[in-house]
Amino acid sequence: MSLFNKRRDVIEVSINQKKYALPDTGTLVDVLPLLQIRQADGIAIALNEEVIPRAEWAAHALRQADRIFVIRATQGG
Length: 77
Description:
There is one protein chain. By secondary structure, this protein is mainly beta. 5% of the residues lie in helices and 34% in strands. It has one helix at 31-34, and strands at 10-15, 18-23, 43-47, 50-52, 67-72. It has a five-stranded mixed beta sheet with strand order 2-1-5-3-4, with no helix packed on it. The relative contact order is 0.27.
């Protein structure tokens, strides 16, 4: 799955242990639509085993072979 229509340089990343192709200009913000997540409330993202603060997602450029884990908080009872 990709986020672009025109040919650009592409990187491959792992998101929750699945491979995705993204433009080489991709950031952590671009990950959420791939997982059909519309709101970031209750979402945490770890990049290469380090949790990245939400305020840094838009500025955090992705690189080839990055390992991304998206975690959604749930309530239990």
